[in-house]
Amino acid sequence: MLRWIDVLKYAKYSNPEPPQRVEKTEEEWRQQLTPAQFRVLREQATEPPYRNAYCRTYAPGVYACAGCHSILFNSTDKYHAISGWPSFKQPVSKSALRYLFDDSYNMHRIEVRCNVCGGHLGHVFPDGPEPTGLRYCINSESLIRQELPAGL
Predict the structure, then answer these.
(1) Who's near 132: CB < 8 A, 6+ residues apart?
(2) Mean pLDDT of 32-39
(3) Which one of 18, 20, 53, 97 has the fewest CB atoms closer than 10 angstroms to its CB?
(4) Is 38 within a domain?
(5) Is residue 95 part of a domain?
(6) 65 among known catalytic residues
(7) 138: closest CA among 152, 127, 125?
């Protein structure tokens, strides 16, 4: 289970190695992604709060990166944070995400990216529920929800 201290260490020193890497040109990303997905994943945009696909979705399944389809979050770790964006307590694994310091807009935050393709997902904050205390505030445009296979 990740804690805030782990997130800070990853952002400051070194992120876990991903199981693989996906690298594409900007043009390849433009062809694959919708314009809204491209703005969020490749240009670090933020979608409008509350008016996004997964803010109020709690169906069972997993959430994968819309860019490379790497599984990032499980629906069992999703919760209603009243932030306007999907919120999660924990990623599926320590190596699923990459953490970077983000001082844009005169704020001090930790940016969260897909560790496989480097796509911008959102930010993580230390004000989430126990036991992790983490709130991963993620753009819906950066995610795709997948049903769990039968029997899982």
Answers:
(1) 1, 2, 3, 89, 90
(2) 97
(3) 20
(4) yes
(5) yes
(6) no
(7) 125
